[in-house]
Write a structure and sequence with these properties.
alpha/beta; two-stranded antiparallel ribbon; 317 residues; 11 helices
């Protein structure tokens, strides 16, 4: 009886420990609050090895999500559904396991309005503030000489366009930009030349993923305007960047793609004949992994974009 009681106590303790895993992990992250309502959350590897290359990934949150929800966890009864639509934390863990010879640091960029477009409209000098924020994050890891990567989902793309606006030209240590259904704010006049000049430089990568949102109706009305969605804006960006190199168009049953030979300049546009809303599904189906690994030797290693989750085992309870 005593051993049976001990067994159940150990089982209860293990279950309790598992239930606390997400909270323990998330609470361990360093956080930095900046004036104007910005909160940065730092997901660092367990060990930062100064001898390894470091990739510093800033992830600008989508509209309506908190950092905890974007990080993600297994849903329990009563949990908000937002905890199960992105899983940037689990996808980051997958990336680290796939490429253990690189320090991957992910910095979540959140603001109190839960919408980067709204935040930028609130502050007259918002673009300069974003540029200063990025520089502050870079300086934090200066000893590791990080390669900077700017990634985003949804309205988080506004953060990246704000950063681009503030730069006379994009810096050399910025090696990758990733838009995950986040090109709403692209404007030819403001962004074409800077992006075109940047992608011509060695070891630069621009990854764009979107879907046909132009056919979607929400409450009986079009989800986006004819020229305001990511389907239109992403194709406009692809057209504008032909000046930066030859893009090969490929059309498959479920997608249209525009890529250069190396895959470092890539547009993946998912068709939508049934007019569904795929806005978050693009993230769920290994979208963040694709943004980070596309065009590298790790692309499609253990995962496939637009297929089942490859990171399920890394989702914390």
């Amino acid at each position: 009886m005593r051993y049976l009681l001990l067994f159940f106590l150990l089982l209860f303790h293990a279950k309790l420990k598992a239930q606390q895993t997400f909270k323990t992990k998330f609470d361990s992250f360093k956080k930095l609050e900046i004036d104007s309502g910005i909160t940065l959350t730092f997901d660092e590897p367990d060990q930062l090895n100064a001898k390894l290359p470091t990739k510093l990934i800033i992830f600008a949150l989508p509209n309506g999500n908190t950092t905890a929800q974007s990080f993600g966890k297994q849903l329990a009864p009563g949990d908000d559904w937002h905890f199960d639509i992105q899983h940037i934390g689990a996808q980051t863990a997958f990336i680290r396991k796939t490429d253990p010879q690189t320090n991957y640091i992910v910095v979540y960029a959140e603001n109190s309005l839960k919408a980067w477009p709204s935040w930028r409209r609130k502050f007259a000098n918002s673009d300069d503030r974003i540029a200063d924020l990025v520089k502050q994050v870079e300086n934090r890891y200066a000893q590791y000489h990080p390669q900077l990567m700017l990634t985003s989902h949804s309205g988080g793309g506004s953060f990246i366009f704000g950063y681009i606006n503030a730069q006379p030209s994009l810096p050399a240590n910025l090696v990758r930009i990733g838009f995950l259904d986040a090109t709403y704010g692209y404007e030819t006049e403001k962004h074409q030349s800077k992006l075109a000049n940047w992608v011509k430089l060695p070891n630069k990568s621009l990854q764009v993923i979107a879907y046909n949102d132009s056919v979607v109706l929400y409450n009986g009305k079009p989800l986006v305007s004819p020229t305001g969605g990511t389907w239109y804006r992403s194709q406009l960006l692809a057209k504008d960047l032909v000046v930066a190199g030859q893009l090969q168009k490929q059309e498959l049953e479920d997608r249209i793609s525009f890529k250069n030979k190396k895959g470092t300049l890539s547009f993946t546009l998912i068709k939508n004949p049934e007019a569904k809303i795929f806005h978050t599904v693009l993230v769920e189906k290994n979208g963040f992994i694709q943004l980070v690994l596309a065009g590298t030797k790790f692309e499609n290693k253990g995962y496939t974009f637009w297929k089942d989750r490859a990171y399920t085992s890394f989702i914390l309870p």
